[in-house]
C-alpha cells in the first residue's frame, strides 16, 4: 500500500540557512529604484533624495570680495613686499552689498567682509594691522604687504557649470544651504516610498492598556514605524490585526494595492501560529527565508503583486537588528540613494569569545573612549528579547561564523546612530 505523504513543514525546518551576505545580495539585487519624482521647495527638502544633478548657473562668489574687515589697497609697485611703515590715503568706505569707487595707486578704502573689492585694489589688509589717523582719512601699516592678500576671487567656491549636488544624494541641511547659495529655489526629488505595516500576535496589547496573563505590550510597532519615518518613508499603519490566516491575507491584499513595500514583525517562523509566511506564499512569491545569523534568523522576503515584502522576526532585538542590516539598505536603494550600503568601521573588542558559533552574530556593545583607540564592551545579556540592550548599546560588533578570539581582536563595528537614521 502506498503511504500518503504528510506535509508537516519539516522540509522547511531542515532547509539550509542562507548565508547573510548572499541573503543581502538577493534583497539588493531585487530592489526596484523608485522613479516617481516631484518638485519641492528648499524648506520641505530635508532628507529628500535628489532625482537629478544640481548644476550651478553662477560663480560663487560672483565677484572678488574681501575675506575680512579691513582696508582694500591699491599697492604701487614700489610698495609691494616693502619693509617699514607705509601710509595710504583712505578715499572710500564699502559695506557688504555696496560697490566702491575705483582706487588710485597708493590709496585705500575701508572695506567689510563680503564686500566687492573695488577696481584698482590689489590687496586687503585686516583692520588689526592698520592704524587709522585721528581724522580717519589715512592709515599706516608696519609690515611688508603682498598682492591679493585676503581677497576671495570670483568663482573661488563654485564655478558656472559645476555639479554641486549629485543625483541620489539624501539632502542634509548643508546641502540645502549650498543649493540656496547658487539661487536654486526648488529641487526635483524622489517621491517618498509608501510602506505599509501591520502587526500580528494575539498576545500583543497596545501601551496604555492593562496586561492580562500571557500578554505583552507591542513594542515592535513603536520601533518599526519610527525607523521607517527616519528613512523618510510614508507609513500606512494598519496596527494590530487578528492573528489568523484570513485576516493576514486581507491585510496584505489591502496594502499591496498602493504600497511600494509591506513590512511586518513576527509570523514568519515555523510555528503553527505563524501565518504571515503562509499568507505571503498564498498571495505572492517568497524569495528568501531564514538567514544564518543571530539575532534574526526568521527573515522573509518576497513580493505580492508590485509590492515588495519584508517580514522581520518577532523578537524585538531581532526585528531592529534585521531592519538595520537588511531593510535599511534595501529601502535606501529603492529610494535612489547612491550610498545605500551600511558602512562598518574597525573597532577593538574588549572581551573574549571562547566558543565558536555556527551563525554570524551581531552583539550589542558600547564603546569605551577611555582607551586609544576606543574599545568595545559587551552587554552581558545578548538574548533577542532583551530590548534594553539596544538602548544601552551604541553599536553592533559583527562576529564571523565559527570564530574564537581573545580581548584585543579587531572586528567590524556598526554604529547604531548611523543604522537608525
Strand order of the largest sheet: 7-4-6-5-9-8
Strand tally is: 26
N→C terminal distance: 61 Å
What is the residue-mean pLDDT, rounded to a whole number?
A: 92
Uncertain segments: 1-14
Give structural notes.
The two termini are 61 Å apart. This protein has nine helices and 26 strands. The strands form seven sheets. Strands 7-4-6-5-9-8 form a six-stranded mixed beta sheet, with no helix packed on it. A six-stranded mixed beta sheet has the order 16-13-17-21-20-18, with helices on both faces. A five-stranded mixed barrel has the order 22-24-23-25-26. With 421 residues, the chain is α/β, with parallel strands linked by helices. It has four domains: 10-36 and 191-334, MoaB/Mog-like domain (Molybdenum Cofactor Biosythetic Enzyme, Chain A, 3-Layer(aba) Sandwich), CATH 3.40.980.10; 37-60 and 156-190, Molybdopterin biosynthesis moea protein, domain 2 (Alpha-Beta Complex); 65-152, Molybdopterin biosynthesis moea protein, domain 3 (Molybdopterin biosynthesis moeA protein, domain 3), CATH 2.170.190; 345-419, Beta-clip, CATH 2.40.340. The chain is elongated and about 90 Å long.
